[in-house]
């Protein structure tokens, strides 16, 4: 009789111990699941904040590009017409002709800046044509050779995807021009299934991964952070 009571007591203790272990395991799993949910929510919030920041930046680019094209560009074109009339009345003055040439060059620069800020070709013709047009702008203005090659015909992507890729390439080119001392940039675009693979290679000085990581945390490295 006593042995039966002991066996029952041991069984009850084992069941209690197993219950405690199961409770701890379930509690830990619930805690881990909660942590994952919180992490996912934080990542979603960070992504939403990043998207909002980039969207705000793009809207500001559009505003500036529009003002440059519509206001500054129109004013320069009007000045150019007045100079032409003055040139006709003065009998082909060299000084006025030089001023007209300078105005023409300035109009072209304003158009290039406006295109960099908000590429119209991106909406109408797609990513490849926009990258090619961007390369032509740099080829005219920076003394560096930029070439774009696509292995096959690129499909149209979502507007945001095309815009992000365009901005990444634009920022990389700017960094190469500012810091590498290179003379040539090659951009290769390849579609592989549902993925777009893009590589940018230059003949200048590069940086190590450690230096790149340090630059990401450096105050003011907005371009690199936007790329990330």
Describe, in plain words, how this protein is organized in 3D.
This protein has seven helices and three strands, in the order H-H-H-H-E-H-E-E-H-H. With 228 residues, it is mainly α. The model has no long low-confidence stretch (mean pLDDT 75). Helix 1 runs antiparallel to helix 2 and helix 4 runs parallel beside helix 5.
List keywords for this structure.
single chain; 228 residues; mainly alpha; three-stranded mixed sheet; 7 helices; 3 strands; 75% helix
How far apart the termini lie comes to 74 Å
By DSSP, the count of extended strands is: 3
Widest β-sheet, arrangement of strands? 1-2-3
The helix content is over 70%
Helix/strand/pairing class, anyone? mainly alpha
Categorize the overall geometry.
elongated
Mean pLDDT: 75
Tally the helices: 7
Order of helices and strands: HHHHEHEEHH
% residues in beta strands: 5-15%
The major pleated sheet works out as: 3 strands, mixed
Q: What ranges have pLDDT less than 50 throughout 5 or more consecutive residues? A: none
Radius of gyration: 31 Å
